[in-house]
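User: Before I run my own analysis I want an independent prediction to cross-check against. Here's the chain; please return only the structure tokens and, at the end, one sentence I can use as a sanity check.
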Amino acid sequence: MSCLDREMIVGGGTVSLRALCHLVHRAADLITVAGAHEIVVKGRADYATRVDLGIQTFLRTELAHMYPQVQFLGEERHEQDADLGRPCWVVDPIDGTTNLIHDYRFSAISLALLDGGEPVMAVVFQPFSGEMFTACLGCGAFLGDRALSVAKDRELSESLVAVGTSPYDREPADVDRNFAVLRSVFDHCADIRRSGSATLDMAWVAAGRVDAYCENNVKLWDYAAAKLLITEAGGIMVDYQGRPIAHQMNTGVIAGSASVVQALLNLKAPHLK
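Assistant: Structure tokens:
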């Protein structure tokens, strides 16, 4: 059986991974240069474009038609009123909006299905490279038809660590704490990377392209799909205190192999303890 042929019974209905991938491909057709330049400023360094809004509307409408038994939660338009104890879609229509605005070409559409508060199916699509990351609970994580595995048996000193700068947290004390963590990570690893898309960074952890990911303030729609990718690829995801992450709307995230995550937790930098 192809990984895309996986199906799950959720909320009394059958959800098809292949159908979700096809839907996300269709959503990506809404990405246009003109749409990326119609910008809504939501806050400091926090933007939405016509592309974000259009993709979220498209996915909400199509998913409601295909799976009316499942709730919807999305980043845009304050569509976050959902009971996460019941089946729910969690959507980030464009993770990496600032990248999209600048034609940086490193953004993703992220779609997760939560059941009982935990992700059970995930699709992350990078429209500029055409890479489709998928996962089903208990069935593994895949890039296309290739099974994924996090990088293992590597010391932190040899590791490439993706980081986020939590750009919405611009209070001086928050910035100082955040960059103290990043400095400590940099001092102890081989090198760090900052891409501007938390979802893709975590998908790359699942693919073994980077060894770990850490960021102080990550939203549910950024990590929901990526969490399943990572855990199905043999990794773990915890908060900055080392606690398992359920379905918090905001959380710190450290993800990777168990050994590298523990090494990052042991750095004792501000906010890591």
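Sanity check: Residues 142 and 148 are 5 Å apart (CA to CA).
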